[in-house]
Backbone:
């Protein structure tokens, strides 16, 4: 059985984060990424004794986090395998980074419920618990599968599929050369394969770098910006993004539809949704936007409500206040640089228990405080991001890294003039690893491709 | 007409129906494993008939032949007696995909196989048409022939090829027929339906045979055989072959050919929608090729001899179901075939076959004990694919009768395993052909190591001979010894050594290195470092080859071995036959249904069934552990 790793604590909670590893390589993987205060080589760790030290990245020697770590020798563990647990700083960043390092050094990301599964299969859990185990695994797998698919709408899956298409094309050319050597088909050259491989490599790198910025998947806190027209929602989004994506004008109602952006504030992934203003409108196109906005608010993890201090509170503002009362939210009183029609005290009468931040988005004032507030809320556990989304993201990144390693092997194989059938092994692995992101790994595709593209037959 | 009076024709252990490539292997395996065996065929003149192409082997298929041989089958030995040209394909690629392909003297292949069958002491040959399969309480009991003979048998193996309700199509004409003008078997189809077996229609085709003297070979490219002949059988590895090889010829269709085809498409039964059967994508008719790849200016055509004692020539690449007159017209537009004389027409043939997912991986029918199916009736195509299945069915019929463990090969052990697993797990939508790309562990499943992989298994079940087994043991030992010697032989960076390395275009040494590691350099190999290897003994070619492959591709081989370990983990989790998956809590409804249909033998096989998800596999693992603990009576 290979060695698995996963984050065992819920995401986003304050305090301590735990990353857990199970399997025969646990100790050696841990020893390659941990330097202890008292133990230089963690392989010599004493069973069940907590050790203080640091997790570092063996690639560049940088320290990732200050941790407590414990080795628990099989069979007296939860899974009846060797287990290493790492206790690090809470929140998402530390646990994610540590998990990533374990994955890069030989562990595999645990499947949903896999620790429990192993515990049962290795005789740790009672027979009466079998059904509970099945329920748990079933539920977790289905849930993560759903999350995985829902995250893959749009541009990321398009990108992954594009790369897979290049690989499929390579595979078809390789296989046709191998299986139909006497057909009247031009044999694929190593130059062509090299060119394609380098392209694949570049594309994987691009995806990985967007993954670093936390933008890769539709993950993160669902954060909705709410406010009546022309209150400064789009400007706020732009300020957060520091790029000019949404159209900003002075005419009310120019943000006709929902705009979604992904941003990473101090490691916290945010999916920021800018809605058309909540306002009764006759304009159908805009109405569509407004309906969607109401819908989006339902699903939001966090609402940022924006009010305009330079205009009187209206019926629309009241609607927003009602929403704010029921959701986790941050309230901004914007345009404080213009002559004010009302002040923060008046606003807080309606929402006494909400924090109100004074901003002038046009001048960039208050943005920093907003970001800090988001970070605080996140670490205090006041807002939570769904754990499955993060795990899915980790899994995808893990697969991207594996695919990257495969394509490096392809390139070096080509450079060393290794036979075509050996090179194919790595091309196929690369294709399969990417397929695990998009959920497709059927090899019949290759044959379909061959028969549709090449004229083959005796 | 008076009613036919039936009589008992004899009692046998195993009855094989059909004497094609599947039937021959099945019957021989059974007889050689000590069973009293009966082979029934509609025509003794069609034993081991090659009704289509005159070759054995090729990519993937050559691997199958080697594996059949390694297990103790006959195909390789028989083709070694009757080939008239030999080529190793893919030699520019890695050793895993080197593929032996030979031209056969069809008639000689038939005669030689017939002799072997006749000489086999446990085997009885009887010409006759089977019209009934006798089944009692879901166990097969024997068969009945058209002439009233009842043969009792403990196991029956059906290897009926394309004969079942065979129908030949040529343009507007179609008629009942077996391949090559032989009789079809119509009654047996009905008999199979009667015992509950569902049949479906597949289709395949063959090109015309033409008279050698009517061909202008001067305008064609000669395709000679290899100078060095490599035999198929591991038993013949040291044998010298003095075969005068006969060439094949390469030519091309012309624009005129394509024009005639296009003009007459409406007369093709395929395009007119008369044929319901599904044909193979890798073996399209010339009509298909012209229509689907209309931008291709020419298609290549190979002219191949059918044997030494005949002037019939096979026109590879020109299979067709167009009317006879159109066939002749278009053939005569191919370069060098301007005056060609037809001897046999091209045709498409449609036939009944079964859904192979109704079989276990032993090729036993799931619903009727001791009834086996092998070859084209299972939806495969090709002589080699048929022979491989025949062998496995024959062996398992014997294992069943002897009450021994089933004999199966998994996807990491043999192409035979890939072939059968694909058929029984995924089924097939077209006549199934082996290709190396179907094997996940291609680098391990090489044609050069089939004996190392399989002979011991064949020996243990009593099929592979003592001689064969000893040969393999000796080969293994020699390889091991040589590998160890190379690991121990240290080469030190002396001036002489570095001079030799320089001459070989390799970097100079700075520190001592084992010869083993030195050979790994891309520009070096076992053969060309011989100058550095003072203690090298003269070793047989196949030993040197194994040593070289194992060193040079060690990295890749290790990668695949790791994947195989992973694969084996689930493969070794056996699922009992009697599980009712409806009762397994936690499985999805789709999985329950699919699992009940296929009844996989292992969790590994279950994981390859479409519609069974990773979550379902986890549920199965937990379920198995639960059952195991209940059985062992402890609840720890």
Residues:
């Amino acid at each position: 059985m290979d060695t698995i790793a996963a984050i065992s604590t819920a995401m986003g909670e304050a305090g301590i984060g735990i990353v857990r590893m199970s399997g025969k390589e646990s100790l050696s993987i841990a020893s390659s990424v941990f330097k202890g205060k008292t133990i230089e080589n963690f392989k010599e760790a004493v069973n069940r004794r907590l050790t203080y030290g640091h997790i570092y990245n063996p690639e560049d020697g940088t320290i990732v986090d200050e941790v407590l770590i414990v080795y628990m020798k099989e069979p007296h563990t939860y899974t009846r395998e060797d287990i290493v647990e790492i206790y690090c700083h809470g929140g998402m960043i530390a646990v994610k980074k540590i998990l990533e390092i374990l994955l890069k050094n030989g562990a595999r990301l645990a499947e949903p419920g896999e620790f429990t599964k192993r515990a049962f299969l290795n005789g740790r859990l009672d027979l009466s618990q079998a059904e509970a185990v099945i329920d748990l695994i079933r539920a977790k797998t289905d849930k993560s599968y759903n999350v995985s698919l829902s995250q893959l709408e749009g541009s990321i899956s398009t990108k992954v599929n594009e790369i897979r298409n290049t690989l499929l094309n390579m595979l078809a050319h390789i296989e046709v050369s191998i299986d139909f050597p006497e057909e009247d088909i031009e044999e694929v050259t190593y130059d062509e394969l090299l060119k394609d491989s380098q392209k694949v490599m570049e594309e994987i790198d691009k995806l990985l770098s967007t993954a670093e910025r936390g933008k890769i998947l539709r993950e993160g806190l669902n954060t909705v910006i709410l406010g009546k027209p022309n209150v400064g929602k789009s400007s706020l989004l732009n300020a957060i993004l520091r790029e000019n994506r949404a159209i900003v004008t002075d005419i009310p109602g120019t943000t006709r539809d929902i705009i979604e952006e992904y941003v990473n504030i101090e490691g916290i992934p945010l999916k920021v949704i800018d809605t058309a203003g909540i306002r009764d409108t006759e304009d159908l196109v805009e109405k569509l936007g407004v309906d969607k906005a109401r819908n989006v608010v339902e699903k939001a993890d966090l609402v940022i409500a924006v009010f305009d201090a330079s205009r009187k509170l209206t019926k629309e503002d009241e609607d927003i206040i009602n929403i704010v009362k029921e959701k986790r939210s941050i309230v901004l009183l914007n345009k404080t640089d213009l002559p004010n029609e009302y002040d923060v005290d008046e606003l807080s009468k309606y929402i006494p228990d909400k924090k109100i931040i004074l901003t002038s988005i046009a001048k960039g004032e208050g943005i920093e405080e907003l970001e800090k507030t988001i970070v605080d809320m996140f670490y205090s556990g006041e807002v939570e991001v769904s754990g499955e989304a993060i795990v899915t993201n980790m899994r995808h990144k893990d697969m991207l890294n594996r695919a990257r390693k495969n394509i490096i092997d392809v390139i070096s194989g080509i450079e060393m003039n290794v036979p075509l059938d050996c090179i194919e092994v790595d091309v196929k692995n690369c294709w399969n690893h990417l397929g695990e992101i998009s959920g497709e790994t059927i090899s019949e595709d290759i044959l379909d491709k061959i028969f549709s593209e090449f004229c083959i037959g005796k | 007409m008076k009613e036919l009076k039936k009589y008992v024709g004899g009692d046998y252990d195993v009855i094989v129906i059909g004497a094609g490539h599947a039937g021959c292997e099945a019957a021989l395996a059974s007889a050689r494993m000590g069973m009293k065996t009966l082979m029934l065929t509609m025509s003794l003149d069609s034993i081991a008939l090659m009704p289509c192409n005159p070759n054995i082997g090729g990519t993937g298929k050559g691997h199958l032949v080697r594996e059949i041989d390694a297990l103790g089958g006959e195909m390789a030995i028989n083709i070694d007696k009757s080939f008239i040209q030999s080529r190793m394909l893919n030699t520019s690629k890695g050793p895993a995909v080197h593929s032996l392909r030979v031209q056969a003297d069809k008639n000689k292949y038939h005669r030689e196989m017939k002799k072997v069958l006749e000489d086999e002491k446990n085997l009885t040959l009887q010409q006759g048409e089977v019209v009934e399969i006798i089944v009692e309480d879901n166990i097969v009991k024997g068969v009945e022939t058209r002439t009233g003979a009842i043969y009792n048998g403990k196991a029956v193996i059906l290897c009926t090829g394309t004969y079942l309700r065979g129908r030949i199509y040529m343009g507007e004409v179609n008629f009942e027929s077996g391949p090559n003008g032989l009789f079809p078997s119509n009654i047996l189809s009905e008999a199979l339906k009667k015992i509950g077996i569902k049949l479906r229609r597949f289709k395949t085709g063959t090109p015309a045979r033409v008279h050698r003297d009517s061909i202008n070979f001067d305008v064609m490219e000669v395709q000679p055989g290899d100078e060095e002949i490599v035999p198929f059988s591991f038993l013949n590895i040291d044998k010298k072959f003095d075969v005068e090889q006969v060439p094949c010829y390469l030519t091309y269709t012309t624009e005129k050919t394509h024009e005639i085809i296009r003009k007459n498409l409406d007369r093709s039964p395929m395009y007119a929608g008369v044929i319901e059967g599904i044909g193979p994508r890798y073996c399209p008719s010339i009509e298909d090729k012209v229509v689907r790849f209309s931008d291709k200016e020419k298609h290549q055509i190979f002219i191949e001899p059918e044997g030494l004692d005949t002037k019939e020539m096979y026109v590879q690449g020109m299979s067709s179901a167009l009317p006879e007159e159109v066939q002749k017209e278009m053939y005569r537009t191919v370069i060098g075939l301007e005056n060609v004389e037809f001897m046999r027409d091209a045709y498409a043939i449609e036939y009944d076959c079964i859904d192979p997912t109704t079989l276990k991986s032993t090729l036993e029918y799931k619903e009727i004990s001791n009834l086996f199916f092998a070859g084209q009736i299972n939806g495969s195509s090709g002589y080699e694919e048929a022979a491989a299945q025949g062998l496995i069915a024959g062996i398992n019929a014997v294992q069943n009768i002897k009450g021994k463990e089933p004999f199966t090969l998994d996807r990491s052990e043999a192409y035979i395993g890939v072939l059968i697993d694909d058929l029984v797990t995924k089924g097939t939508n077209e006549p199934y052909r082996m290709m190396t790309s179907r094997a996940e562990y291609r680098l391990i499943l090489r044609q050069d190591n089939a004996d190392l992989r399989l002979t011991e298994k064949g020996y243990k079940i009593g099929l592979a001979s003592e001689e064969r087994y000893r040969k393999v043991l000796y080969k293994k030992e020699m390889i091991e010894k040589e590998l160890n010697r190379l690991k121990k032989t240290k080469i030190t960076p002396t001036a002489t050594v570095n001079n030799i390395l320089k001459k070989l275009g390799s970097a100079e040494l700075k520190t001592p290195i084992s010869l083993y590691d030195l050979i790994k350099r891309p520009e070096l190999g076992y053969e060309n470092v011989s100058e550095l290897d003072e203690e090298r003994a003269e070793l047989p070619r196949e030993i040197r080859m194994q040593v070289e492959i194992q060193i040079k591709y060690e990295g890749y081989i290790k990668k695949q071995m790791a994947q195989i370990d992973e694969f084996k983990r689930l493969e070794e989790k056996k699922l009992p036959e009697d599980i009712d998956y409806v009762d397994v809590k936690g499985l999805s409804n789709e999985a329950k249904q699919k699992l009940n249909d296929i009844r996989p033998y292992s969790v590994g096989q279950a994981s390859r069934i479409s519609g069974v998800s990773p979550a379902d596999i986890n549920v199965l693992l937990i379920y198995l552990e639960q059952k195991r603990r209940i059985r062992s009576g402890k609840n720890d």
Summary: Chain A has three domains: 4-125, 157-213+387-453, 221-379.
